[in-house]
Description:
The protein contains 16 helices and 21 strands. It is an alpha/beta fold and 478 residues long.
Amino acid sequence: MGSPCRDETRTKVVATIGPASRDAGVLRAMIREGMDVARVNASHGTSAERAADIAAVRRAAAAETATVALLVDLQGPKVRLGALAQPVDFAIGERLSLTADPAADGTGGLFPLPYPELLYGLRAGSHLLFDDGAVEAVVRRVLAGVAEAEIVVGGRLSSHKGVAAPGATARVAALTEKDRTDAIQAVEDGVDYLALSFVQSADDVRALRRVLESLNADVEIVAKIEKREAIDALDEILDVADAVMVARGDLGVDVPPQEVPFYQKEIIHRANRRAIPVITATQMLQSMVSNPRPTRAEASDVANAVLDGTDALLLSAETAAGAYPRESVAMMREISAIAERAMPSRSGDERFREDRHPDPIADAIGAATVRVAEEVGARLIVTSTWSGYTARQIARERPHLPIVALTPSERVAKRLALVWGVSPLLVPEYATADDMLEVASRAVIDGGFAAPGDLCVVSAGFPFGGEGKTNFLKVHRL
């Protein structure tokens, strides 16, 4: 079975840029295989290195005449041990004490944890997971800012290993000073999306929004769902975020890993109902870091995320540091294409009529567009959008037909690179319905999406230039 071309798949691919994919030839190959969004991880490298990666992606996209969005993933408050004098091996039943004192270095069993707000939120019985759960301890008592804990899963602790405290009452702000600095730099670099790590509430998203507003920056926010608190506050987060990410790695530390697949389905479903793009992330094709083909379990994982309704799938180490970055993107596309053949359209699914609608007329026309297109045997659906809203509402229905989104805004075109099934096309501005239909006909024919004489269904909003004003539907012969 050959690899599908980009136009045969609807699920988008987000690929992380790193040492394995910085080369211009590799970037262009990844774009040809279907990279829709390039992720730059602010947890690694310097701001200058990230700026260079962003510029390299732009050059590669221009060379391939492709629309590729740029996403900078902010590090967030990753809680880590401080520096240790030397690694320490622990057996079950041994004890250690944690303190915010920066002078502690592991000597005498006193370990540095430079997060006093976390320490003061611990209670007897709190669990501590070090190094993503490789070492586990249970807090036995907290006294004068020192938490004494007993090892229940032994192993080695070394400097700067991650620490998680599932269920602790402490709240560490999602937006750090480093994040603020990195966000400002990302705005200067002209990115399309910022991903906010360890979101716990809608207020975390609002804090980043205020930073962007202070810069007069038109950048969308992806809220990463990787804390139990975020799951509990999901509806409020969806009210203020532009997109969400099911960040399964850290989520599987904060909640039992066996529960993660069910949270994944729920997060995707609730985001779909709101027409908010959702990304599924972490270890999707992990074995392809060192192997040219995925495991059967990984292929099933990717396919199930597609069937769940995810808009996009994220590759991390596979493309950042792996031996097969191009092949990883191609494999993600191929698995997605096969899974999409089994996806039913949602045009008759009442579950997606339940949610409140910010604009009932626009949402009703979006749903009707899909039903009409399927009933008349249209070749494709064309949307005219100045904000992306119309295209997202139609994509929410998961039609079997291609969706071509015409927009005069380069910024909107790049944002739509993240939205399931949407092929964004940058077009000249238009003022009337006749002008729009003429531009639409020329754009989809020149773009190879349809041929003269094909039938398409067009939706748009009048007057042009608004948001959430979809009020026009036409069956149009090219």
